[in-house]
Amino acid sequence: MDIEIDSLAVLGAGSMGHGIAEVAAMAGYDVVLRDVEDDLVQDGYDQIEWSLDKLAEKGQLDADPEDVLGRVSTAVELEAAVADADLVIEAAPEDLDLKQSVFAEVDEAAPDDAIIATNTSSLRIGDIAAATDRPERCCGMHFFNPPVKMDLVEVVGGEATADDVVDAAYEFVESLDKTPIRVRKDVPQFVVNNVLTPYMGEAGFMLDEGADDVRAVDAAMVFRRGYPMGPFELNDFGGLDVFAHTREQWDDPVPESISSRVEAGDVGRKAGAGFYEYEDGPGADYE
Ligand code: 3HC
């Protein structure tokens, strides 16, 4: 029998979590958006509101933004957030201990047959799922930043994940009008980040060696190769701190041009400075 997904909880209201909740609400799902403090969850909710208005302004939303927003509710208590969920998507910071503790809590509080998915970009699904008594119902659902604009989602099963759970996750992603790809093996960083992280890293090492400059490399990739962003702009966009943490987690070296900026707090767009300056400061064009 097919697994039905009607109700959804997203844990973590940061850039990925609130974006995933927005995408699900746009597709007609009722979503509970949860974070550990009122301010955090409110900020995520406000960003959804900003994004929906922006999309509507540009004619990129086929619905009334108020109706979409009306499908998003907020919570701080994890138990209440997941009590009725068919699917829980965890979008907490990229730390194995933290994700395991969230998974263990969800395992206790969510219905027995709920699927628990993680938006991890770099950790193994099996390692996170090991904190639960239902590894067969755990999977990876890796969205890209910003979820509302990026079409691709990686769907990943751990060794213990049941096939029908991976199928249900895949179909759920399709129901969001996104394009899922099934990652064949539960390897750290899956497909895209295994390619993307070294690409951004190599650009940083080139800079360390004085081989080229930031603007020239980005311009070559954008205007000659047709990428939407060059490696430095993309790293600013995702956060240099996130990049450095991912590399360190797997003992991969971090270019000096990146670690020195992280040390100085210039972690990219969200900080107002990274490889580039962002005049409009934290949150860039979000008001
Ligand atoms: N909601 C609504 N509008 C948004 C938005 C959002 N979440 N984010 C940005 N916008 C708006 C901007 O405010 C801007 O509005 P303006 O035109 O009024 O100033 C507009 O979108 C920008 O639109 P553009 O037409 O300039 O650009 P596109 O819409 O064509 O593309 C983009 C924007 C999709 C972000 C594109 O630049 C892109 O694809 N960049 C690369 C992103 C990428 O590679 N992401 C993956 C990173 S890796 C990752 O996420 C993995 C993770 O696990 C680490």
TrEMBL record:
Residues 8-186 form the 3-hydroxyacyl-CoA dehydrogenase NAD binding domain. It comes from the Archaea. Residues 190-278 form the 3-hydroxyacyl-CoA dehydrogenase C-terminal domain. Belongs to the enoyl-CoA hydratase/isomerase family. In the N-terminal section; belongs to the enoyl-CoA hydratase/isomerase family. This is enoyl-CoA hydratase.
